């Protein structure tokens, strides 16, 4: 497991925000500003996070129903990743992993907040953090040391008012927007544009977290009408309103890119486009309509199959990333933190252990990554039972906690995870399970326990977990 330490937190938080840190560092990031303009400016960061967008929801990832010309253009100007992963199959933990560079298991933030409840299921799931702890050093806090100003615009979902973005290094925060998915896209995009214009002369980090394409399905009627006509005869993907939501998001991307051009800062701005988990096919309780299809990936959000964790990822880094490049190196959401620190030549916090690895060598096409595996720990009920997973090279192992069942897949030969090789390759399965055990211990992962109220007749019944008071 690759872990990295950065500059001491007490020293870090006591310094002025505009100076690059010096002093003793357990692991100092290189003092080189990669890909910056000739004048030596540090790169800006625009991180676009979409809610519940599936790996197959974009034209550049193979969709023949949805229309995403502007996101496709972004991919044509940057690098598109085929094997990029969310650290969790649901939103809050992945968001925490992006902001801290730490696995959800290490954060003890392993389900969406406040989470589900299955009172009579076989296992009692662990209590988990109902917020991102304030002692965590976010990427916004870390970038302050290099003179950055940060904005969080959109969905937070990492705790109540006492744990809002303004407590985690974000100088500009916009969370109150229209309670309608279609109107929110435009409102958030306008806010993002205003922030970029106000800070065009200094390095900034913009974390733009859309609520779309999460349910409820809401979009402009003229776009719904367009896709209703197109949906005649559509097979896997064909929900008109969901398609309309994706097109509205695509329009937002066009507006953002236009703003960067008009402000004349596009050449020194890194744009990252990502989703917080895999696509939702249908609600966890089986209610509601079929939303989308993640084919050829198996299953959906809330599972450890590829459909629940493999996401679209596009990185545009002008002057560094080769336009139109495609990368099949497995990367994960804990990697964004060290990557942005390296790009910004910023130091962090020596007491803040991070699990991610900078993907700068991959983006520059100068080398690979050092780690040997990527891990997941999801000890909660959702679309499947609690479990964990590890990907090592082309092999992926899933372990289910209720009965210890193992599933082993060769993702190069079987991206749809249809051929379970665990019985055919018991030594490989045992090897990966041992790695998973070692990683769980190192991350101090919380495990589910046997439920004394287990009732097979009612095990499938859902309850609603109440939000508990925040830990002080």
Describe this entry's structure for a reader.
The chain is α/β, with parallel strands linked by helices. It has 2 domains: 42-371, Alkaline Phosphatase, subunit A (3-Layer(aba) Sandwich), CATH 3.40.720.10; 376-462, Arylsulfatase, C-terminal domain, CATH 3.30.1120.10. The chain has helices at 9-13, 69-77, 91-100, 104-107, 139-144, 181-198, 221-230, 240-262, 306-309, 336-344, 360-364, 426-443; strands at residues 44-50, 79-85, 116-117, 123-124, 149-154, 172-174, 204-209, 269-275, 310-316, 325-327, 331-332, 374-378, 387-392, 395-400, 406-410, 449-450, 463-464. The strands form 4 sheets. Strands 1, 2, 5, 6, 7, 8, 9, 10 and 11 form a 9-stranded mixed sheet that branches. A 4-stranded antiparallel sheet has the order 12-13-14-15, with helices on one face. Helix 6 (181-198) packs parallel to helix 8 (240-262) and helix 7 (221-230) crosses helix 8. It is globular, with a radius of gyration of 21 Å.
Which key terms come to mind for this protein?
four-stranded antiparallel beta sheet; nine-stranded mixed beta sheet; 472 residues; disordered N terminus; alpha/beta; single chain
Give the CATH superfamily of the largest domain: Alkaline Phosphatase, subunit A
Query: How many domains, in number, for the residues?
Result: 2
Kindly identify the CATH topology of the largest domain.
Alkaline Phosphatase, subunit A
Helix content: 25-40%
| SSE pattern, N- to C-terminal | HEHEHHEEHEEHEHHEHEEEHHEEEEHEE
Average predicted confidence as pLDDT = 90
Rg estimate, integer Å: 21 Å
Structure classification = alpha/beta
Please report which band the strand proportion falls in: under 5%, 5-15%, 15-25%, 25-35%, 35-45% or over 45%.
Answer: 15-25%
């Amino acid at each position: 497991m690759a872990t990295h330490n950065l500059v001491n937190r007490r020293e870090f938080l006591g310094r002025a925000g505009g100076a690059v840190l010096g002093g003793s560092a357990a692991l100092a990031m290189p003092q080189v500003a990669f890909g910056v303009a000739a004048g030596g400016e540090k790169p800006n960061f625009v991180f676009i996070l979409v809610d519940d967008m599936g790996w197959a929801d974009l034209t550049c990832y193979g969709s023949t129903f949805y229309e995403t010309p502007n996101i496709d253009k972004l991919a044509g100007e940057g690098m598109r990743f085929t094997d990029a992963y969310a650290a969790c199959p649901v939103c809050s933990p992945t968001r925490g992993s992006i902001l801290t560079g730490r696995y959800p298991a290490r954060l003890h933030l392993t389900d969406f907040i406040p989470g589900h409840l299955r009172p009579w299921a076989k296992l009692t799931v662990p209590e988990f953090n109902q917020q991102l702890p304030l002692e965590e050093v976010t990427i916004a806090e870390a970038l302050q040391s290099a003179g950055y100003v940060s904005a969080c615009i959109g969905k937070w979902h990492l705790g109540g008012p006492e744990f809002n973005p303004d407590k985690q290094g974000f100088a500009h925060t916009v969370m109150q927007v229209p309670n309608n998915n279609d109107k929110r896209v435009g409102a958030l995009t306008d806010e993002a544009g205003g922030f970029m214009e106000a800070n065009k002369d200094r390095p900034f980090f913009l974390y733009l977290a859309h609520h779309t394409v999460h349910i409820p399905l809401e979009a402009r009627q003229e776009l719904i009408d367009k896709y209703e006509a197109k949906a005649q005869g559509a097979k896997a993907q064909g929900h008109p309103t969901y398609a309309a939501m994706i097109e509205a998001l695509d329009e937002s991307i066009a507006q953002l890119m236009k703003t960067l051009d008009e402000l004349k800062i596009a050449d020194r701005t890194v744009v990252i486009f990502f989703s917080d988990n895999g696509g939702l096919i249908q609600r966890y309780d089986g209610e509601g309509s079929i939303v989308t299809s993640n084919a050829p990936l198996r299953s959906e959000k809330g599972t450890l199959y590829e459909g629940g964790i493999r996401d679209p990822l596009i990185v545009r880094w002008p002057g560094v990333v080769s336009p139109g490049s495609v990368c099949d190196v497995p990367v994960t959401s804990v990697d964004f933190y060290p990557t942005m620190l390296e790009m910004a030549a910023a130091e962090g916090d020596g007491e803040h252990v991070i699990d991610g690895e900078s993907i700068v060598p991959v983006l520059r096409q100068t080398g690979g990554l050092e780690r040997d595996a990527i891990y997941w720990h999801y000890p909660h009920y959702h679309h499947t039972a609690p479990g964990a997973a590890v990907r090592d090279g082309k092999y992926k192992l899933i372990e289910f906690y209720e009965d210890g069942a193992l599933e082993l897949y060769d993702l190069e030969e079987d991206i749809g995870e249809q051929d379970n090789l665990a019985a055919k390759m018991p030594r490989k399965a045992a090897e990966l399970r041992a790695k998973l055990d070692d990683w769980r211990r190192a991350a101090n992962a919380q495990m589910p326990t046997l439920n004394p109220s287990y009732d097979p007749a009612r095990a499938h019944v859902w309850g609603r977990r109440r939000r508990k008071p925040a830990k002080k």
